Each structure stands twice: as C-alpha cells, then as structure tokens.
Amino acid sequence: MGLLEANNAAWALDRKARAEGWPFRCDATLDFGRRELNALRDLWRARATGKAAPSRADFDARSLKPYLRHIMIIERVYVAPDRWRYRTRLAGTAVTEIIGDPTGKFLDQQLPPELLPRWTSVYDAVLDGAEPLRLVADFELPQLCFLRGEILIAPLADRNGRLTLVFGCIYFAPRRGKD
C-alpha cells in the first residue's frame, strides 16, 4: 500500500470520528509530540523494511525496553466469516496502572457498547490499511475522563504472516481543555 492510500485511510477515519463526534483525531503523518513515539515509529519502520509489517517476533524486550510500560498488543480474533473481536494480549504497567489489567479480555468486555465502534474502527483501519496511525484521544470513561492519550498504533504480522495484531504505544497526559 502506498502513502496516498494510507493517508486516505487515516483521513477517512478522522472524518468519520469528526462526523460521529468521537473524541479523537487520527492522521498518518506520524509526527508525534512525544520524542519516544517518534523513536518507536522509526524502529517500527526499520523492522518493516521489505515487508507489509514487522512481526511480533521482530521486537525483543531489549529493543522495546524504553517503551515497555506503555505498550499494548491487541489481537484480531476471527469468530465467524467476516466477524471478529479484539482481545488484549499484552498491556504495559503504565497502561494497567491507568485502566486496570485488560490482558486476555476482549474489547467488548472492557468498554460500554456505545464506545466499542470507535475503537474497533481504529484497529480495523490499522490492520486493513496495513499502515500505522497517530491517534490523539480524549478518554470518555468516567475514571479516565481527565486524560488524553497520544498513541502510535501499528499493524504487526502473526506467525503466519497475517496482519492480525495491533501494536500500540500510549502516553497519557492530563487534558488541557479543548484543542
């Protein structure tokens, strides 16, 4: 997939978010405010050289050490033809300190039904578009409504080379009003 298609997928998701009133913005520029996310973006790109996306095996604990506390890996689990759910495979301690431990839980077990479509749309866009995205999200759950997250969300290949894993790295910060 070329940059134009990736940008179209990211901008399409951003337009949908605006139209639906979802509290996030999405883009494919991958120009992050946090230097850590820019460094991880560069690492993902280096590991993706020559393939659609790197695999989970392309990242070891040493290469991810600076980011491990902020990492999530989400798996697309097929439950029927053209039907899937998302399950959290791994969540770093900075994530679990904020949202609790979602490891092993499906997204529909973690979120209220009205919030589910926005997050599945993001994960679908990343996997179907085979390109990473930058997401800036204001969280809506009552226990998180004071937080904003800047997130690198990127596809990862599974052991069979299929794009079924979503790699995320999130840094939380207090919301600072409307941007």
Task: Describe the protein.
The chain is 34% helix and 29% strand. The chain is built from six helices and six strands, in the order αβααββαααβββ. The protein has a six-stranded antiparallel beta sheet, with helices on both faces. Mean pLDDT is 89; it is low at 1-6.
Explain briefly what this protein structure is:
The chain is an alpha+beta fold.
Q: What labels describe this entry?
A:
179 residues, alpha+beta, Beta-Lactamase, single chain, globular
What is the secondary structure topology, with strand pairs?
Blueprint (H helix, E strand, L loop, with lengths): L2 H18 L3 E4 L7 H14 L12 H4 L6 E10 L2 E9 L1 H7 L7 H4 L5 H14 L3 E6 L8 E11 L5 E12 L5
Antiparallel strand pairs: 1-4, 2-3, 2-6, 4-5, 5-6
Helix pairs in contact: 1-6
What count of domains describes the coordinates?
Answer: 1
Q: What gross morphology would you assign?
A: globular
CATH fold annotation: Beta-Lactamase
Helix coverage percent: 25-40%
Q: How many angstroms separate the termini?
A: 31 Å
User: H/E series, N to C?
Assistant: HEHHEEHHHEEE
Count of DSSP strands: 6
Structural class: alpha+beta
Count helical runs. Answer: 6
CATH C-level name: Alpha Beta
Radius of gyration over alpha carbons?
15 Å
The CATH level-2 architecture is identified as 2-Layer Sandwich
